[in-house]
Amino acid sequence: xxxxxxxxxxxxxxxxxxxxxxxxxxxxxxxxxxxxxxxxxxxxxxxxxxxxxxxxxxxxxxxxxxxxxxxxxxxxxxxxxxxxxxxxxxxxxxxxxxxxxxxxxxxxxxxxxxxxxxxxxxxxxxxxxxxxxxxxxxxxxxxxxxxxxxxxxxxxxxxxxxxxxxxxxxxxxxxxxxxxxxxxxxxxxxxxxxxxxxxxxxxxxxxxxxxxxxxxxxxxxxxxxxxxxxxxxxxxxxxxxxxxxxxxxxxxxxxxxxxxxxxxxxxxxxxxxxxxxxxxxxxxxxxxxxxxxxxxxxxxxxx
Amino acid sequence: xxxxxxxxxxxxxxxxxxxxxxxxxxxxxxxxxxxxxxxxxxxxxxxxxxxxxxxxxxxxxxxxxxxxxxxxxxxxxxxxxxxxxxxxxxxxxxxxxxxxxxxxxxxxxxxxxxxxxxxxxxxxxxxxxxxxxxxxxxxxxxxxxxxxxxxxxxxxxxxxxxxxxxxxxxxxxxxxxxxxxxxxxxxxxxxxxxxxxxxxxxxxxxxxxxxxxxxxxxxxxxxxxxxxxxxxxxxxxxxxxxxxxxxxxxxxxxxxxxxxxxx
Lengths: 303, 263
What we know:
- The complex is a heterodimer.
- Chain A is built from eleven helices and 14 strands.
- Chain A is an alpha/beta fold.
- In chain A, helix 3 (about 95-105) runs parallel beside helix 5 (about 135-145).
- By secondary structure, chain B is mainly α.
- Chain B has one domain (about 5-255).
- Chain B contains eleven helices and no strands.
- Chain B is elongated and about 65 Å long.
- Classes of the chains: A alpha/beta, B mainly alpha.
- Chains A and B meet through helix 2 and helix 3 of A and helix 1 and helix 6 of B.
């Protein structure tokens, strides 16, 4: 199948800041493409370039086979877009606002809107300025999905949603992909991308650091694990275990940085006198440590 | 032009237009209600006692007619100010304001073209100002009948047309600034500064002989040079209308060639 997004030397500068730097990227049609990166990595800029809100400083971006800069309206008619900070007219009800956007899109079946709203438990008859952040985000999700676009471009789509709604949303993304539509979504939460994406790109400073399948990326992920012992930690033993990259000791605990699968570590810990074990959420910054393996650029925390 | 965007933008103006319309009616009614007592006061001795500068500027000699009274009291600064303030406020809000709020990008990202969005929003400003102009014409005619100002329907229309076109030119100017730069303060400040400069030029031109030749470049002078109540439609009104069209063209060209900012 063709690519839904193709960029060539895509560059976007804002004054002296380079937000997207000479990006060559191809997003295959069908499936879910996850875009990861810390704040300021260029994710939002990339997505806004794709939907024709921004014009490249240099290079090209083609979406659904159409030049997004020269013919943005042709891209926009086939794309659903949820911006990172979605803002609707507060003085309208969700229903009136969605009807307005639907009229700009040439009409949408109101039953489809009602169906999505019901799924997300969104009350369409409330004024948007009386809705919580999470409920406003549901309005944004609804407008992106409501005309069943060929391509969904979603910027940090789960922000503000509670865990149940996040799950419902991710199910909607999976269903869209199963129906043959393509989804490009950005996030800084690995677990979220992991749950739906087939392919993941990691951006840093506007450049593509990694483009890989989720499975491969997970194998390279770095996680932090705290192990508590009844007595002094056997630091030397721990340091010798396959995958353990760093060991920091406390009086009765050890803090490990582990790359890849945990099986070797678990096997090695089993005979030891482990009192407790805490594994921390895989943090994007630490993914970068693995992706880069570059001591001079510590974790991707920047803003 | 997108009809849906036009209707939405007009609906957004409803409340503001109602407020400005009521304000306008009150101003016209109060000023008109004062006319009978002013008329009885306007003796030749009193007129002669005004300083020369004031007589020039407010055309005090003409104050002994209802039309002259309205020209001096309402159409010299209050009404131009009201029309410009309304149109600039709405013009700055509709594009630059919505872009800052983040609501504009959701409209732009639909298949409706950017030029269709700008044109619809500009037309909404024009129509809003026209509604205000109609309110002005009607309230002048009603007040003229109530307080015996003796304003002919045609004269009320010419005066209202001059105010409307003046407002439209500045309102479209505010849309245009917003189309060029995504800044609501700039979209208010730049037209406001031009309006103040235009007024200063209009006043200085009346008082200072060396400035007088430049006076006809002032949008104020263009709109009210013949009164505006009681005169013919000045050519300047046509110039202002053309300026509004040119500014609208600049707005379309700029807005279709730049980035849409996110809040």
